[in-house]
Structures are given as C-alpha cells and as structure tokens.
Amino acid sequence: MRDSGDLVRLRLPTEPFSRQLIRLAVFLVASRMNFDLSRLEDLRLAVDEASSYAIAHSPPGSSLEVAIEPGKEYLEIELRSRLADDGERRTAIPESFSRLIMESVVDHMDLQREEDSCRILLKMRCTS
C-alpha cells in the first residue's frame, strides 16, 4: 500500500466492536469516492469477513492495524494482525466460505500469512 496523502490508519483492539469502527471508516471513505449503495454493501460484506477472520485468529489483547486508501482507480483496505499460537486455526481461511465471499464481492483479495502475522488486502474499483 502506498501513501497518497489520503491514507486513513486505524489501530484497534482485536475485539468485536472494532468491526463496527472499521465498517464505519470504510463506509465514510467509499461514500466520499461516490461508491453506490450496491458497492458499499459489497464492501461491508468483505470488510466484515476480513475483520472477523483477523479478530478470531488473533491472541487476546493484541491489536488490529487497518489502512484505508482511496486512489484514482481503487479503494484499498489492508488489515494486519498477529496470529494466535494455535497453528490449527491458522489454516482456517485458505479454502473457507469467508474467503469465497471476499473474492466474490471485491475486485481483488489477497491473504498472506507469515509465521506470526496475517495480512488481508481488499481492493475495489471506483465507480464513475
């Protein structure tokens, strides 16, 4: 993610209430970019799935970092979190229903897991 000057960054606790704050921030940025209601609903679904995954797989007391960047062609949303030590739970998203939802409602979705962290990138093309 590059910083075009309009980048919005959030650092939130990995608690369910954080999902609402992320949705609100994404909604405000996307509506300013003239996304229509249908595209806003798609974004809400994708952000809900991504933030739910990040929160559910993070250790208690950790934080979730979110970057929301409006661009000329795309809105990019990046979520980063630490992964809990439960290795079995780390493999939950590669073939999951959540991943299918995210891939079907945004133009690009990328999930990268490293040893102790997770990065989810969502990109949606701006409407004219």
Report on the structure:
Strand 2 (63-70) and strand 3 form a beta hairpin. 27% of the residues are buried. The model has no long low-confidence stretch (mean pLDDT 87). With 128 residues, this protein is of the alpha+beta class. It has four helices and five strands. Helices cover 38% and strands 30% of the residues. It has one domain: 2-Layer Sandwich (Heat Shock Protein 90), CATH 3.30.565.
The number of helical runs is: 4
CATH superfamily: Histidine kinase-like ATPase, C-terminal domain
- Total number of distinct structural domains: 1
Q: Which runs of at least 5 residues are low in confidence (pLDDT < 50)? A: none
Order of helices and strands: EHHEEHHEE
Shape: globular
Distance between the termini: 22 Å
Average residue-wise pLDDT: 87
Tell me what portion of residues adopts beta-strand conformation: 25-35%
User: Which fold name is given in CATH as the topology?
Assistant: Heat Shock Protein 90
Class in CATH? Alpha Beta
CATH architecture: 2-Layer Sandwich
Strand order, largest beta sheet: 1-2-3-5-4
Gyration radius from CA atoms, angstroms: 14 Å
User: What portion of residues is helical?
Assistant: 25-40%
Secondary-structure-based class equals: alpha+beta
Please count the beta strands (DSSP E, at least 2 residues each).
5
